[in-house]
Specification:
By secondary structure, this protein is α+β, with helices and mostly antiparallel strands. It has 12 helices and 8 strands.
């Protein structure tokens, strides 16, 4: 570092980031930047929202003394909570550099690349300005950030879990679960971080279940439900009775549909979490499985069909089938109870399903046939009613 810069301060502005991939594939609440001088974490930025194109925008800055050290490290981290954070989150990228490397850009914004994640290099946009003595009045050396034992244990769990996902080595999963379980054991009922601790443990076990390295999916669901209960307060913790496998799967699918209705309004359009929630493994998956459930014609069956239809607004590719399935359920209840309101609504649903399909569309012939069947039911019912009246 130049001798002329000794005793000076710099203003480091964090402008944005691109190509921010999450090694563990978890869905982050946001992304933040840490500045580490020596072995001490000196500063953490505000949490920025990850957008669907894996970019983040910040409006944050820090003033640092050039006398701290000639070398600094920067970390891009994924947070799975907003404030307060439980630890520093999962490290997405880490880069060691020097003040000399950062100061050679003429007070203009510049990009700095990090080692690749999933084959793509995360990139930070920064601006570094050397401050004159009149600009840094009141500036002081930043105190080191004190991290609790729970925070360090959580960070260790994130590191092991990300390594498990990328390496597929089960011992790292076991280590991650051990760390997250230890954190949960310290976050007893009523602890402000219990929901976060439950979620971290549940997520690690879920990934293990998906990869056939962990077997008990019911315990995973219970952890997520308890975490949701702590966040929403009014949400009951559901304990399913011992039932057949098919009944349990049906109950899970119903629960997933109800949760989607609560989740989607919380996901701003254009954000990464919105793209995941509405994607093939989110909303699409739930709708497809709901539409594949057997039609029963019960009140609960019709209720869940209405929930699914709510998740399929005009323009959604699943709407015609959701309408047709609701029509089936209503017609089935009509056969059981004889209410013409159910039959009329069944016909209305099936007419709309047909109207949303163009000539040659897959499924249109089935929707036309089903509409014809509902119309025949109404004709026969009206004929019987007329005969009885006469």
């Amino acid at each position: 570092m130049s001798v002329s810069l000794q005793g000076r301060y710099i203003k480091l502005e964090v402008i944005g980031a691109k190509n921010v991939g999450i090694p563990s594939w978890r869905i982050p609440a946001g992304i933040h930047i840490s500045i580490i001088v020596g072995s001490t974490r000196r500063w953490k930025s505000t949490i920025g929202v990850l957008l669907s194109d894996e970019s983040v925008a910040w409006d944050d800055a820090v003033t640092l003394s050039l006398d701290l050290s000639p070398e600094i490290s920067m970390e891009i981290s994924a947070s799975f909570e907003f404030n307060p954070m439980l630890g520093n989150g999962e490290v997405v990228g880490k880069l060691e550099t020097s003040w000399d490397a950062l100061l050679g850009h003429g007070n203009e914004p510049f990009d700095i690349s990090f080692p690749p994640v999933r084959g793509v290099r995360p990139c930070l946009t920064l601006k570094v300005t050397v401050l004159h003595s009149s600009d840094n009045r009141g500036s002081a050396l930043l105190d080191s950030i004190t991290e609790s034992g729970i925070a360090r244990e959580t960070d260790a769990g994130h590191e092991r879990f990300a390594t498990y996902v990328t390496s597929k080595t089960v011992s790292y999963l076991n280590d991650a679960i051990q760390h997250f379980q230890s954190v949960l054991d310290q976050c007893l009922v009523g602890h402000p971080d219990r929901a976060e601790a439950l979620t971290n443990l549940a997520w690690a076990r879920l990934e293990g279940y998906i990869r056939n390295d962990f077997q008990d999916i019911d315990s995973v669901a219970s952890l997520f439900r308890e975490a949701l209960h702590y966040v929403l307060r009014a949400t009951p913790i559901i304990h399913y009775p011992s039932t057949t496998s098919k009944e349990k799967i049906t109950a899970y699918i119903h629960e997933a549909a109800h949760l989607c209705c609560k989740l989607l309004p919380l996901c701003p359009e254009g954000t990464y979490i919105s793209s995941i929630a509405a994607g093939a493994n989110g909303l699409d998956y739930v709708i497809r499985n709901c539409n594949n459930l057997s039609v029963e014609g019960s009140d609960e069956d019709i209720h869940i069909r209405r929930v699914v239809l709510e998740l399929c607004p005009l323009g959604n590719k699943h709407r015609p089938r959701a309408l047709d399935k609701l029509g089936w359920a209503l017609r089935s209840r009509f056969e059981q109870r004889g209410s013409t309101d159910d039959l009329d609504e069944s016909i209305q649903c099936r007419r709309e399903a047909v109207s949303l399909c163009s000539e040659g569309d897959s499924g249109r012939d089935d929707y036309l046939n089903n509409l014809a069947m509902s119309l025949r039911f109404r004709f026969n019912h009206q004929g019987v009613t007329t005969h009885k009246t006469n």
